[in-house]
Amino acid sequence: MRLLLLAVGTFLIGTDVFVIAGMLPQIGDSLSVSIAAAGQLMTVFSVGYAVLGPLLAVPLSRRSPRAALTAALVAVAAGNVVCAVADSLPAAMAGRLLVAAGACQFTPHACSLAASLAPEGRSGKSLALVTSGLVMGSVVGVPSGTWAADVFGWRPTLTVLAAATAAVAVPLAAGLRGVDSEHTAHRPRERFAALRGPLVRMVLTVTVFAVIAEYAVLTYAATVFAEATDGQGGRLAVLLFAFGLGGLAGNALAGAYMDRPAGRRLVLASVAGMTVVFLAMPQLTGSFPGALVAMLLWGVSGWMYAAPQQHRLLRLAGPAGSVAVSLNSSVIYVGAALGGAVGGLFLGQVAPRWLPLTAAVLCAAAVVTELRLLRRDRPTEPATVAV
Question: Which of 57, 112, 377, 385 is in Cβ range 3.0-4.6 Å of 323 for a Cys bridge?
Answer without folding.
Answer: 57
